[in-house]
Amino acid sequence: MNVFEASYLLRYLSAVIVIVVAAKLLYSAIRELAWAMRHSLRPAQGIFLLNNQTEGEAMSLPLYHTTSLGRGSSNDIRIHSSDVARKHAQIYRYDGDWYIRPQRFSAKVEVNGEELNGKRKLENRDTISLGGTDFVFVDERAIAKSRGETYEEAIFDDRAFYRAVRRNSNPPYLEWVMMNLFTALCTFLLYFMIPKEMGVRKDFLIWTLGAVALIDLYFLILPKILLYADRILYLTCSHMMVIGLAIQARLHLLGSYAFREAREAGEILKAQDIAARLFSGYRTQIIALLIGLFFLWIIALIVYKTRLLESMTLVCAILTPLLLLVTLILGRGMETHGANLWIYIGGQSIQLTEFAKITFLITLASFFKNQPPLRIQIYFAGWAAGVFLLYLLLPDLGSIMILLPVTLLVFVVMTSEYLKTFLILVAASVMGVLAYSIFPHVRSRISGWTSIWTEVNDSNRQVVYGLQAIGRGEIFGRGLGNGSPGGIPLVESDMVFTVLLEEFGLIMGLALVIFLFVIMLRATRTTVLARDGFSSSLGLGLGAALFMEAFVVIGGTTGLIPLTGVTLPFIAQGGSSLLAKCFMLAILLGLASRHEEGANRK
Amino acid sequence: MKQLIRNIKIALVVLLVLTIGLGTGLVYQQYQSQTELLAVAGENKASLRTRYAQAGSIVAKDGVVLAQSEDGQRQYAEDIYVQLGTSQLVGDYTHHMSNTIETQYQGEILGNKRGITEQLLLDLAGRGLQGDDVHLTIQGDLSSLAYQELEPYDAGALVLMNYKTGEILASVSTPATEMSNIIRYEDIPDTALFNRALNSAYQPASTFKVFTSAAWLTSPNFQPDFTLECSGEPLYPGGARDKGHGLMDLNEAFAASCNVYFGELANKMGEEHFSEFLNNLGLDKIDSLDRLDVRPARYDISAGKNDAGLLSWAGAGQPVGNLIAEETPLHLALVASAVAGHGDYPEPYVVEKIVNPLQRETRVHKADKASMKRMFAPELAIRLEQLMIHGVESSESVQYNAAIPGVKVAGKSGTLERENVESYQKTGLWMGFLAEPNYPFAVAVVVENVETSSETAVVAGRNMLQYAMDYGIQ
User: Fold this and answer.
1) Is the ipTM of this structure higher than 0.85?
2) CATH architecture of the domain covering B205-348+368-471
3) Which of A46-55, A563-572, B290-299 has the lowest mean pLDDT?
C-alpha cells in the first residue's frame, strides 16, 4: 500500500475526527450559551433607580448595561402611564459612566427638572422624570467614595459570577487532542506525498510543525493571558487553521505537472526553481498565520484591558472609506478576476478591503451600542451608503453580501427596529435589482449562477468545476492528495471549499458549517455576557461577519447563491484575509474576556 | 436588556435556519452534481487526467485491452486499427466525446459507484482508489478488421452482432482518428468524433423493402400470386421508377429490388396498413445500447396517404418529399437479427460485465428469453428469410457478392442517391446474416459517398460475416 492508498483508507479516520470535534464543540457552545442566556440578566452592582411609591416607600429598580424605560411590555422598566411613550428613554453605560437619553423627540425626559434634548451623564442622586413618573439615580460607588469607603461587595459578586461562567465552560481538551491527531495525520501523509525530488520535505515539516506548535501553545497558555479566555472559540478557529494548512500544503506541493515535466525533461534547475516557487506560496501562507498569531494575543490583551476600540470610532469611520478609496485608486489597472481589490507594496499584494471590514464593524458597533435615536441612525445610514457605494465601485460584491446582512443583524438586535429592518431589506432588494441592470459584472454573476445545471460557460465554469469536485468527494472524500483540483479557477482561495469536499468528503463540509455556527454561538455568548453595549454590538458583528463570510463562500461555491470573490475564513489562501481573520478572532477573544472590572476601566 | 436577549434569540433562530439550510443545500447540491454534472460537455479537462490515473481498464471480449491506466497515464489499444475501430465506442478520458464507455461508465471506471461494504473491503485491501474494469462484448480483432473494411471510403459505419445473444461484436464508425489526437483535440478529421453506428440517421433506401414485403405479406389485400410487368416507368404520376425489370413476382422483385413492384405493393396494401405495420415494429423505441444513446428510428409515410406516387416511393424505400424513414446501422442489424431469429431479436448490449479490483464481478449482463423482443411473426420472418436468401443467391443481384460458399447468407442491400452541387453521391447499405445456427451473426454496413451503389457495402458485410465465422465465437 503506497501513501496515496493509505490516505484513501485514512479518510475514514479524518472524517471521524472532524465530525466528532465539530459535534463536541457544538454541544459545548449550545450548553454554555443556554447557561449564559439564563444568567445574563445581571443588574449592574451598586447602580439602580429609586422610585417613590405611596406612603413614603421607595422601590429599587435594577439597571443593566442598557436599560430601556417605557410603556411597552418589552421594556426593562415598564411604566404604566399614558404620558409615557412605548419606548420612552434609555439608561446605558458607556466607558464606565452612566447616561440617559430620550428614545424619541416627543418623549419628555427631565433630569433634575431640566428637559433633555439628547444624552446626559447621570450622577448620584439625580432625579429623573419621565412623563410625570419620578426616579432617583443611585450610584453606591459614588456614595462609598464620598464617604472614603471602598465598594467591595459588587466586585466580589461579579467575580463570583465569572467564576460560575468558568465552571460552566468545559476546557475542550479532547477536541484539542483530536485536532492534533488530525494535524499529525495530514502532516505525515503530506510529508511522504511530496515528491522527494522537490527537496522541500524538511522545510515543509519545520514550517508546518512550527505553526501548529504556536497554535497549541496559545491554546495551553490562553487562560494565563486572558482571565476568562474563550478556548472553545479559539479551538474552533484553530481547527479551521490546521485544515487550512493541510489543504494549502496539498494544493501547493502536490501534483505539479510543471515540476514533473521539468524533471522528466532533465531540466534540474528549472525543476528546482518550480519547487522553490511552489514552496514559497505555502510558506507565505504560514508566515501570514504566524504574524496573525503573534498579533493575536497583543490585540486580545488590548481589547481585554483597555477601551481603545471604543475611542477609535471616528478613526474607524474615516479609515473604512479611506482604505476602500486607496484600493480603488492604487488598484486601478490591476484588475484580477473582475475586481480591483489588491494593491502592491514592495512586491507584496495587500487586500486592504479585508481590514476595512474590521473598521466597518467597529464603527457599526459604536453607532449601535445603545439604541441610537433616529438622527444618529440616519448619520450611520449615510456613512454606510457611501461605504457600500465604494465597495460596489471596486467592485467587491462579496463584502457587500457579508456586511449588509451583518449591519442589519446588529441594527435589529441592538435597536429592536423590526419594521425599519424590513423596509431596509426591501430597499436593499430594489438596490440589488438596480445593480443587476446597471453593472455588467453583477449580470454576469447572476446569469452564470442560473445556468450551472444547463450549460458550462465562461460565467459559471468556476462553479461547475467546483461542483463536479464536490460530487466526486461523496461522503468520505477521496483522501488527502487524491483529489483532482486541476483546472478549477482560484482553487487555493475562492474555491478551496470544493477541494476540501473532494478530498475529505461531505463530512468535512458539514463539519465546517458546524464550526461556523459554533463561532456564531460563541460570539452570541460574548454579546449576552458583555457588560456594555459596545462589547455586545461588536461581538455580535464580528461573529456574524465570520459566519456570513463563510456562508457566502460555501453558498457561492456550491451554487446555492451567486458566486462572489470571498475567501473561506482561516482556510483559503490569502495573507491579508488570514491576518484580518486573526485580528477578528483576537478582538472576539478580548471581548469575551472583558468583565466588570475591565469594563469600568477608563 | 430584556429586549436584547429577545432579539438575540430571534436572530439565533434565523441563523440556525440559515445554517440548517446551508447544510441541507450542501447535501442536495452534491447529489445534484453527481447526477447532473458527472460527465457534461465542458467538463474540467485538467482534472480528468488525475482522476483517470488509477482508473479501471476497458477490455474487449477477446482480451484486447482497449483502455487502461499505467503509471498515471491513460493508454488506449496498442494496435492502431483496434484503436481506430473502437475509438467512438470506447471514447476518451478527456470526454471530448460524450456518448462513450469512458464517459457513460465513468462512475465504475473511476470506482465511484460502489456500495459501502464493497468500498470498505476494497479500502482494507488497499485497492479502494482503483477503478473497476469494464468488459465489453466488442472483439478487438473484428473491430480492427471492420475498420479496415471501411477505411478506404470517406465515411461509413458497421455493426456486427450475435443475433442469438444480442452481443455487439463490432461497432465501427469512420472517419476515425487516433486517441492522442482526440485527447489533444487537434488534427481531428471532420465528424471523426461522431459515432455513425449508433447516432447517424440514415435513410434506409432499398433495405426498407424488407418492411414493404413484410407489410404486404400481412396485408388483408395480400395476393400470393401477384405479378407485375415492370417497364421502368412509374405507375403513378411522380411515382417510383426503375430500369425496367420485366415480369416480376415477389421473389424476383425482392432480388432485383424493383422500385416499381414495391411501389405498387404499397398502394395495394394502402398507407393505413403500411403505417400501422411500421409503427408496430418498435424500432422507434430502441434509443439506447446499455447506457449509450442511440438515435431512435423514425418512420412516417402519412404524406403518401392521398398521393399514390409518393406512397409508391415509400414502398420502394426512397423517402422523397415529406416521407420520413430514418434508422441507424444498429437498427438495420437488429432487423436482420429479427429475421434471422424467426421474428424475435435479443436486446443488444455491449457491456458484458464489470469487475472490481478484487476480481469480483459486480455486474454481469444476463441475456435470457425475457430480453427477447418480437418484431415479426415467426412464419412471416421465415418468409422474409427466404426472400433474403434468394436475394443473395440470385446471380442477377448485386447481393450475389455476399455469397459465402457452403454457407447460407441472407441479406438486403440498398442504395441511397443524393444529388449534390459538386457530385452525384451514393450511400450504399447492406444488412445481412448467416442463416446458420452455429454462426449466429448479423451485420449492417453503411458506406457513404461511393460510386458503385451498394456493392461496397455488400462486400464489406460479406467479409465481416466471413471474419465472424473465423473469429466470432469466443
Assistant:
1) no
2) 3-Layer(aba) Sandwich (3.40)
3) A46-55
